Amino acid sequence: MAEQNMLMRNFILSLLLLLAAFVSACSTAPGNYLDTSRLKDNQTAPTETYPVTLINAQVVMDQAKSAAAAPQVLPQSRYADPAQYVYRIAPQDILGVTVWDHPELTTPNGSTLSAGGNTTQSVGAALQQPYTTALPGQADPYGQTVAADGTIYFPFVGRIHAAGKTVGELRDQLASGLVRYIRNPQVDVRVLSYRGQKVHVTGQVKTPGPLSISDVPLSLVDAITRSGGTTGDADLQRVRLTRNNQLYVLDANRMLDSGDTKQNVMLQAGDILNVPDRIDSRVFVMGEVKNPIQLTMIKGRLSIADALTQSGGILDTDANPRQIFVLRGMQQNPTTPEVYRLDMTQPDSIMLSTQFQLQPMDVVYVGTAASTTFNRVLQQVLPTIQTLFYLRQLTR
Q1: What residue segments make up the domains of the chain, in order of their start?
Q2: Which of 357, 389, 338, 219 is nearest to 281 (CA)?
Q3: What's the predicted TM-score (pTM) here?
Q4: What's the sign of the alpha-carbon dihedral 389, 390, 391, 394?
Q5: Which of 8, 35, 153, 311 could make an SS bond with 289 (beta carbons 3.0 to 4.6 A apart)?
Q6: What is the rounded end-to-end Cα distance, in angstroms, of the chain?
Q7: Does the domain formed by 88-193 have CATH 3.30.1950.10?
Q8: How confident is the model at residue 385 (pLDDT cuts 50, 70, 90)?
């Protein structure tokens, strides 16, 4: 009997060794795998520690105060008041000149010019449409096109500099030049096509492209509206304005929701306006939740309660409600992020979870209960123990 038991133990030991050899042989089995023999894995445990801030009422109040007091650099406008705005002629603009009682010096009303598409329109229609733009590279033969050096040629007056002047200043200059040939000349000057000064709108708008600056002030909202409005993925909280090689971030939501008109800046020639998508406004929910998910902030706001609710809530049996962590600032400071912890077992935790606002690229992580860790170890060990038990029973 003792000899039979000894044989059985040797059989089981041989079987286990055979299984171990089979597992080690998987590296030579067919299929995709990574050969790690040339990789040097530094298995030294990290020694960094990160301070954790417990989320309480004071932390929430400090967060709200810091968000309200956060400085925002806005671009300086040439005009403090839009009512002071005046358009100045630029090269490539097309001008129409009228000299009363002298049709030979007047831009013909029946002439046509480009309307910025594949059709043409009359001068009279152009005067009623201040945003008219000509086709790229196309000059209108019937108007006075301002040359690249900023000058135009006009009969009896000769070549004069027009760029940088208002239409009133140019009108007075033409009248003073014609006074030697025409008694009391009555002169009028209009811009038939605004082509010299442009703003480029890119990103999440329905019709991106250049917009002409005209005699009507062009603001942030005007530019977005004239570009067809925004798409569904647009992030109006972080509209980017590039001016003179300087980047400014404008919050159009603050203007539309709170009436902060300072965000509705007046645009000027050379500005590049970009409406980004919401990829930088994401929040990640991970850990012991029912549905780990990536969320997009709506109008720049998302609380811990919002994030946990949209992920289906925490797991009833596996999650540790005392360990609701928020990891912040990993893009700017990957080695020293801010770590916050919310204890959901406290009476005021529900209120705090709705008031603590997340920031873009935050990670909400729900910790694992200690009992769950032990149960998962058992789940890994039990199949092996059961296999050995059945083998022993079969060999009796």
Answers
A1: 88-193, 198-277, 280-373
A2: 357
A3: 0.70
A4: positive
A5: 311
A6: 11
A7: yes
A8: low
